[in-house]
Structures are given as structure tokens and as C-alpha cells.
Amino acid sequence: MTTSPRLSVIVPAKDAESYIAESLTSLTLQGLPPEDMEVVVIDDGSEDHTAEIAGRFADRFGAFRLLRNPQPTGVSAARNAGMRAATGTGITFLDSDDWYADGHLAVMLEAFEHLEVDSVRTDIILAAGKHRTLKSAPVYLRNTRLRTADHTVRGFDQTMVDYPNPPTGLYHRRLLERGLLYFDESLRSAEDREWNWRIMLRSETFAVVTTPGAYYRRGVGGSLTAVYNETQLDFIRSCEKTLALTRELSGGAEGDPRTLKAAHNLFALADIHLQRRAEMTRGLRTQLVSELTRVAEGLSEAELGTLVDTFSRKRRDHLRPVLRALSRRKAARSSAGARAPQNFRAPQNLRTPHNPRTAGRTMP
Q: Could you tell me which SUPFAM superfamilies the record lists for this protein (predicted)?
């Protein structure tokens, strides 16, 4: 009788011949017996030697699968295909240009099994050339079984929902069987944000551990964020899906803390994107503001007012095109005698003074 490996590692790869050998080599140095780890590489329509290089590692692991897509399907679809092929009890992700420090997965797996949690998360190390920057998971209590509900919303402060990096987590197969681990393939960017919110809202337990290190390589050519295009506007739909989920879980209650937090994330991300407006075409800027306005109209006057009160003066300036568009739409409906959807009314305090006690406390 065959037994399932303790861990499956999903590695999506497209035109990754420069890095994938380093990534897969790091998996051979994790301090785990070969039979404990299954590696699933998804060659997503590469036009270089990615598949050939990956195939050379077939005999380095207890189980190795190389899936090949004739045409690119995107990272979400590639990860989903990898998960459908995976057989491990635990599931984690490694992008083909990133790597793990020696023994990283052994620490993750030990905590995962000892604490009996739905997922284990860790810090991430941002690598740009020879420069390294530690980005810590926003939980200071380590190696302890925690409830996800206690670490999802804390006002507008940063929590685990603001930490969406898939390679920093190890997830139990039961989450996959419940459909929680599958990525939304319609999202071309920000797919991990909606995914992470869904896991935190729908699962029960997790832990954060300190490990030798998960490394994320920055500044790689072909990055989605390098050139601003329509693909990056999908962060709006990602946030919209999260808002719909929080509304569902709260029964549509106005002012639910989860909904306010999700809406705050939308505006925080919008702030970042609007700061790149010089890189956009005029049509793209118009589309960005229009889509943001459409989603924000789903908030009530009280909810929107609460959010605006938390904005720093600088953030309010960045978001002014959206806030003005909301006011114009409200005025147009009033003059036409139409009823706004979901009792929306533009906030009356768009020019309220800067509040130093509440402004600028949250990282997107």
C-alpha cells in the first residue's frame, strides 16, 4: 500500500530557465527524506529550456511530476493544475525564480504537524541582487496554535489578510478539498489577495513560525508590475470579490468590521496605483477611476465616511478623483430623482481635517 507524501510543493514556471535550477536545487536541501516530499512543476507554455532543466531533477525527489501546458494559462491556472495533481497532506508553493534556505520546509512541516493547524505561515526575505530585506508576518506570537478569526481584523491595522504571499505558507489538504486553495483564474493580477482573504475568513486555525528563510526574488524581467497596463486593474475585482464575501458572512450588516477592513484595503491599494498615474494612458486612468467608483458605490454613507476619516491628507489627495466621482454620481442621482444602490450617499466630510490619531496606520 502506498502512502501519500507529507508535503507537495507546487512550482509554476514560464520561461524560467535562468532560475529554475536554483529553485529546485533548494528543494533538495530541505532536510526531509525523499519520500516525504512531492514536487509538481507546471511548465506553463515556456518557449525556452524550462521543462528540460526541470526534468533533470526527476530522480532527486521521492515523487516528481512535470506538467506541460502547450500555451500559457497564467500563474493561477498553473497553480491550480499543480494542486489537482498533488497528493501530499500539506501543500505549499514555490515560484520558479524564488528559493528556500536550507531546512526551511523541515521547520514548516514540523510545526504544521505538531500544532495540527489548517496552515502555517512564515516571514519572507526580499532579495534584490545581493541586498536582503526581511518582511515579517504581522503576528508576533510564534509557534502557537491561533484562531484565524482573531487575526483577520484589528481596526485598520495590518493583519494576516494584508500578507498574501503564497510561498510563505503551508496549507492542509482539507482546505484544498473544501475549494479554498484554488486561485481565481479570471484574475490576472492580485489573485493572491482575494485568495488569502478567503483562506483567513473560511479556515479556523493557523500558526506563524520562524524558519531559515523563504526568499522572494525582486526585479525579475517580465514582472507584471514592471509596466502599468490593464492587467493591473484586476486588483479592483480582487477586492470586490473580498467585499462580496465579507457581506455574505455578515448577512449584509452595515458597518461590519470585516467589510470595513476589506474596503480600506481597496482604497489603500487604489492609493498606490493612483501614484503611478503618470505611467498610465489617459484611457487607463479613466478606467481605473471609473471601476474604483463603481465598487465604492456599494458602501453606505456611514461606511464611506468612516473610511475617509482614517485617510491621511496625502492619501485623500491621491484618492480625490474617486471621491469627486462618487459625489458627482450622488448629485446626478439626486437631481434625477433616482434612488442610489444599497442606500449609497456621498459622504459629507470629504474635506474634514487630517486626524493624526487615525491616519496612516495601515499598510496595504
A: Nucleotide-diphospho-sugar transferases
Give the number of other Cβ atoms within 10 Å of residue 77's Cβ.
18
Question: What's the CA angle centered on 56, arms 125 and 85, to 5 degrees?
Answer: 70
Question: How many domains does the structure of the chain reveal?
Answer: 2
Nine cell digits for residue 109: 512541516
* Cell 482604497, residue located: 267
pLDDT digit string (tens) for 224-281? 556 789 999 999 999 999 999 999 999 999 999 999 999 999 999 999 999 999 999 9
Boundary-marking domain end, from 194, 217, 240: 217
Q: Considering the domain boundaries, does residue 222 fall inside one? A: no
Q: Are 271 and 319 in contact (CB under 8 A)?
A: yes
State how far Cα 306 lies from the chain centre. Answer: 25
User: What is the span of the domain harbouring residue 303?
Assistant: 230-343
On whether residue 363 sits in a domain, the answer given is: no
Cβ atoms 214, 168 nearer than 8 A: yes
215 neighbors 100 (Cβ within 8 angstroms): yes
251-260 pLDDT, tens per residue?
A: 999 999 999 9
Residue closest to 241 by CA, chosen among 297, 307, 272, 197? 197
Q: Are residues 333 and 304 in the same domain?
A: yes
Let me know whether 147 and 271 are in one domain: no
Say whether both 118 and 48 belong to one domain: yes
CB atoms within 10 A of CB 361: 12
* SS3 (DSSP) at 330: helix
Task: Kindly report the backbone phi and psi dihedral angles of residue 82, in degrees, each rounded to the nearest multiple of 5, phi listed first.
Answer: -65, -40
The residue from 166, 182, 217 where one domain ends is 217
Q: Is residue 334 part of a domain?
A: yes
Domain of residue 32, CATH code: 3.90.550.10
Nearest-angstrom CA–CA distance, 237 and 248: 16
Rounded distance between C-alpha atoms, residue 158 and residue 135, angstroms: 13
Q: What b/e readout covers 125-160, taking b as 16+ CB neighbours within 10 angstroms? A: bebeeeeeeeeebbbeeeeeebebeebbbeebeebb
State whether 117 and 238 are in the same domain: no
Does 17 share its domain with 139? yes
pTM attached to this predicted model: 0.89
CA 94 vs CA 9, 99, 101: distances in Å: 7, 7, 12
